[in-house]
């Protein structure tokens, strides 16, 4: 039997704080999500699920028609829910060049020295610490980028992906990281029929607080709801199952 994780995925081991991926955090996880899948459930299909970070999969040969990318579409929905899509950027009145440069609460807790999509990961960690050290940041969140990745999650991804901190937090790397998060939160298990669509949704809801839990239709941490349960299930229904 797979055990429940001992602490929620947004727990920061270094800072001993809970960070909310999208909005202010009002309480701990409800614990309604099912246990995360075993590592072996995320193996052979990983490369296919973690493809290019655009909304279409590149054709394998010249002249081929681009195939739909349901994982990319799901990530696009998450970006919208997190408030980092093109429409949200347009409303920022030039503060951000793209959703890949958006920070938690729009730079309220620290102004980066340059757009975060141009920073190395090591530089980004320093900026995230600056955010967390701001006493006004009561949610203790260091969420950054198009997919609002917090510091603890970022460091875990670096270890999993074999990164050394010198890599630039570019749009391509952000997309790759987000696809890895989708994979780590049950994609292969769902595609193999080992978990239900509702369980997969709950995994996503533990990672992104703007995604509702399947049972309640509310966010697991009490934050702002970014999409309806029906919308989440629509995205999931387009993911191929084996």
Instruction: Determine the number of helices (DSSP H or I, runs of at least 4 residues).
Output: 9
| Strand order in the sheet with the most strands | 1-2
Q: Estimate what percentage of residues fall within beta strands.
A: under 5%
Number of strands: 4
Helix percent band:
25-40%
Compute the separation of the termini in Å.
23 Å
Question: Could you give the order of the helices and strands?
Answer: EEHEEHHHHHHHH
Mean pLDDT: 80
Shape: globular
User: How many individual domains?
Assistant: 1
Task: List the main descriptive attributes of the protein structure presented here.
242 residues; two-stranded antiparallel sheet
Characterise the protein shown here.
The chain is built from nine helices and four strands, in the order E-E-H-E-E-H-H-H-H-H-H-H-H. By secondary structure, the protein is mostly helical. The chain has one domain. Helix 8 crosses helix 9 (229-237). It is globular and about 45 Å long.
């Amino acid at each position: 039997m797979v055990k429940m994780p001992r602490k929620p995925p947004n727990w920061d081991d270094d800072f001993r704080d809970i960070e909310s991926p999208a909005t202010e955090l009002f309480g701990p996880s409800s614990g309604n999500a099912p246990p995360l899948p075993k590592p072996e459930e995320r193996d052979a299909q990983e490369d296919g699920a973690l493809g290019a970070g655009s909304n279409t999969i590149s054709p394998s040969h010249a002249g081929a028609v681009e195939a739909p990318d349901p994982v990319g579409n799901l990530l696009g929905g998450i970006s919208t829910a997190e408030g980092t899509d093109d429409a949200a950027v347009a409303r920022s009145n030039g503060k951000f060049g793209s959703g890949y440069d958006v920070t938690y609460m729009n730079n309220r807790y620290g102004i980066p020295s340059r757009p975060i999509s141009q920073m190395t990961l090591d530089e980004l960690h320093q900026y995230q610490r600056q955010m967390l050290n701001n006493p006004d940041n009561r949610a203790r969140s260091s969420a950054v980028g198009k997919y609002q990745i917090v510091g603890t999650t970022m460091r875990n991804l670096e270890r999993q992906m074999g990164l050394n901190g010198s890599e630039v937090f570019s749009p391509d790397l952000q997309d790759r990281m987000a696809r890895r998060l989708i994979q780590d939160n049950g994609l292969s298990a769902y595609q193999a029929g080992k978990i239900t669509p509702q369980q997969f949704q709950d995994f996503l809801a533990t990672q992104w607080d703007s995604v509702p839990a399947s049972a309640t239709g509310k966010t697991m941490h009490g934050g702002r709801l970014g999409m309806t349960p029906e919308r989440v299930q629509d995205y999931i229904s387009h993911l191929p199952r084996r």
